[in-house]
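Thread: Newbie trying to understand structure tokens

Hi all, I'm a second-year student working on a class project, and my supervisor (Dr. K.) asked me to get a predicted structure for one chain before our next meeting. I've only ever worked with sequences, so writing a 3D structure as a token string is new to me. If someone could post the tokens and maybe explain what I'm looking at, I'd be very grateful. Here's the chain:
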Amino acid sequence: MERNWGMRCLLRWLLAIVVCGCSYLKPVAQDCPARPASGTVVADPFNIVSQNGALTAKFTLEHSVDTAGYTHFCYNYQAPNQIVEAPTLRVNPGDVLNLNVVDGIKNSESMKMNMAPPSGPTCGDGGAATINSTNVHFHGMNVPPVCHQDDVITTLIQPGTPGFQFNVHVPTTQPPGLYWYHPHVHGFTEFQVNGGAAGALIVEGMEKVRPEVAGLAERVFVIRQQYLVPWIPGPYLLTLNYQVAPFLGTSPIIQMKPGEKQFWRVANATIQDFLQLQIQLNGVLQPMELIALDGYPLAQTRNETTILVPPAGRAEFIVQAPPTGGSAVFFTDTYNTGPTGNLDLSQKLASIETTSDASYSHMPKTTSPSADGVKFFDFAKQPATIQRKLFFSEEFGGTNGPIQFYITVDGQKQKVFEPNEQPVITTKVGAIEDWTIENRALETHAFHIHQIHFRVMEIDGKPAPDNDLRDTIEIPYWGGTGPYHSVKLRMDFSDPTTAGTFLFHCHILLHEDLGMMHKILVTP
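---
Reply by user tm_fold:
Sure, no problem. This is what the structure looks like when written as tokens:
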């Protein structure tokens, strides 16, 4: 089967225009801050740091369309003397994140999903989901899936209302590392994340678990993606901290002092791209010391010349600068997503230039590293109590490519997600389960589950080399013949704070919006 990129664009167009049934094409006021010019020095995001056990902030979701026709959704925060977009939230284990979110979108017209809102109790403003509605998912955080914390199934914030208060209790056992926040309104997640409404969330303390990073310069890079959605189906751009990384033209600039080591924390906040991150010096791949994946510190660091980060994944690693007068390239290599997959091209993300004037913050220095209290370090040693099989699949429309996306529990009827559906999996607090997830589709998918991390046990039926803890993982496409690719993941439901109903889905956001998602219920 040949790739059909036009079909991908058409699916987005249909989701915006046909499924939702109305226009969203009118120019709007420029309510989002100006984004940095391409070819300039990349700055780290503005930081909001917890104080005395709490981080308190107010975000306003706004919307703009720039002169090139790209739609921007933005989380605006009023900092001293300026409005900043999507600041980095920095908390400690045991803190409370008090985040007030106001939906400030002023459009008079909006797109509505042709489905009933969730029945039963709702959280927030309720009503029908539209492209102007919002909520917030705290991706990767092991926090309760309940109202005012991380419930994205029933929480809805509507324009013109006073706003909604999140009070997220960060567990004392939350692993230190890089997480992120983004909207998660079913049917419209892709639009708002594509527009840029996403930011980093850091749980402090990595230097206590992985002393390799103590005292190093720290950089936070959020890689986002920008389609002309829903206006004109067409090409996309990658951005680095909102600075466009063009295929042609001047790239963003990362500054480092000659020969120094920096601790990079990189979030893949794209809507679909599988990033193969590399550092190239004179065309030669340079080693990166991998410290953590998906907010979870590795049991042992390892050197990699390519780090694959699926959509929604995060990687934290140590990079060494070139010598005086040298330069290098921060790069993502081509990734083959399969016959019907997205086109993930090789692309230069930034030029790395050396200068003695580089200025940035540093990780704390620590004299007493300890992994005491870090969650999940040993749970792979415990046997699974239940075995399950799930699979990704797609339904085709002739030769035009996939038109429907499914994730199915083996033995159940194949179906798309509905807000009022019953959970397709029910388990209980204390369960340790092994989930084998197959990909029966002709494109790569990215599996994500809310509220917990899982340990990677097997890949294609063979023991995984590293048994990393993740919250998002790629499963390669099926080639059309032979066995399906699969992963076996050990799920730990032992934490009582994550009891409740939450979601698992593909983190290619178009697929999620079109129903490649379902509920799981964890009972006390």
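A couple of things are worth pointing out once you decode it. The longest helix spans residues 5-19. The two ends are 47 Å apart (CA to CA). Feel free to ask follow-ups in this thread.
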